[in-house]
Amino acid sequence: MAFERITVDPDRMGGVPCIRDLRVTVSTVLGQLAGGRSIDDVLSDYPYLEEADVLAALEYAAAVVNEREVPFARPA
């Protein structure tokens, strides 16, 4: 399973996993959801994100805690 919406670029956000090579980290999205915000709230806060981005962040987190090899999309 490849995470096409999750990118890691050492020159962007210190190499932390991001959504589609944007400056929005997976952990930012997850933190908002963990804090009780809905997907619609997150999309309102970050209008350039799509629902599929938020779901990809959740899927990525599930894979990471499962300790699987996690392939990333290459930055553009």
Give the strand order of the largest sheet, numbering strands 1, 2, ... along the chain. Answer: 2-1-3
Low-confidence stretches: none
* CATH architecture grouping: Orthogonal Bundle
Terminal-residue CA separation: 20 Å
Counting DSSP H or I runs of 4 or more residues, the number of helices is 3
Helicity, as a percent range: 40-55%
Tally of structural domains = 1
According to CATH, the fold-level topology is Arc Repressor Mutant, subunit A
Q: What is the CATH homologous superfamily assignment?
A: Winged helix-like DNA-binding domain superfamily/Winged helix DNA-binding domain
CATH class: Mainly Alpha
SSE sequence, one letter per element? EEHHHE
- What integer value in Å does the Rg equal? 12 Å
Number of strands: 3
* Biggest beta sheet attributes: 3 strands, mixed
What's the overall geometry?
A: globular
Strand content: 5-15%
Mean pLDDT: 90
Structural class: alpha+beta
Report on the architecture of this protein:
- The protein has 76 residues and is an alpha+beta fold.
- It has one domain: Arc Repressor Mutant, subunit A (Orthogonal Bundle), CATH 1.10.10.10.
- It is 41% helix and 12% strand.
- The protein has three helices and three strands.
- A three-stranded mixed β-sheet has the order 2-1-3.
- Helix 1 crosses helix 3 (51-65).
- The longest helix has 15 residues, at 51-65.
- The chain is globular, with a radius of gyration of 12 Å.
- The relative contact order is 0.25.
- The model has no long low-confidence stretch (mean pLDDT 90).
